[in-house]
């Protein structure tokens, strides 16, 4: 399946694994996105959402080392910003309020994230 065109979209990347964040940032930029971040902590994510919203979408790693990203996800939902989760967690570990949010299990193919963002409303 061909990658969808994301040209001109502003996408927030919340990911604490440097190599993964860097690879995702590069791929999104190659497709013409403006990447916000990447940020690797909950505090950075919350600050960026407050200062940059609205934007077109986000990729959110659930576990940010010392904190879970759920407060950032709640803020994204409150702003009506579509996002997806990346995680190694089992679905049972994710709060019910996020039941409709797409989750990609780590390790994942960056192309799957690109495809998912292209389908976001």
For the record, give the distance between the C-alpha atoms at the N and C termini, rounded to a whole number.
Answer: 19 Å
Please provide the count of β strands.
Answer: 5
Q: Assign the CATH superfamily.
A: Response regulator
Cross-sheet strand order for the largest sheet: 2-1-3-4-5
Along the chain, the helix and strand elements come as EHEHEHEEH
What share of the residues lie within helices?
25-40%
Tally of structural domains:
1
Proportion of residues in β-strands: 15-25%
Task: Provide a count of the helices.
Answer: 4
Structural class: alpha/beta
CATH class: Alpha Beta
Given the C-alpha coordinates, what overall shape results? Answer: globular
Q: Give the uncertain stretches in residue-range form.
A: none
Examine the secondary-structure arrangement and name the CATH architecture: 3-Layer(aba) Sandwich
Largest sheet: 5 strands, parallel
CATH topology: Rossmann fold
């Amino acid at each position: 399946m061909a990658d969808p065109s994301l040209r001109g979209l502003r996408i927030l990347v919340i990911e604490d694994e440097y190599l993964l964040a860097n690879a995702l940032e590069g791929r999104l930029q190659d497709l013409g996105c403006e990447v916000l971040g990447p940020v690797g902590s909950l505090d950075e994510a919350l600050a960026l959402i407050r200062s940059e919203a609205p934007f077109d979408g986000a990729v959110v790693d659930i576990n940010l080392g010392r904190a879970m990203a759920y407060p950032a996800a709640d803020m994204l939902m409150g702003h009506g910003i579509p996002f997806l989760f990346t995680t190694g967690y089992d679905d049972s570990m994710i709060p019910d309020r996020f039941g409709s949010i797409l989750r990609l299990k780590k390790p994942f193919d960056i192309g799957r994230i690109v495809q998912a963002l292209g389908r976001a409303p």
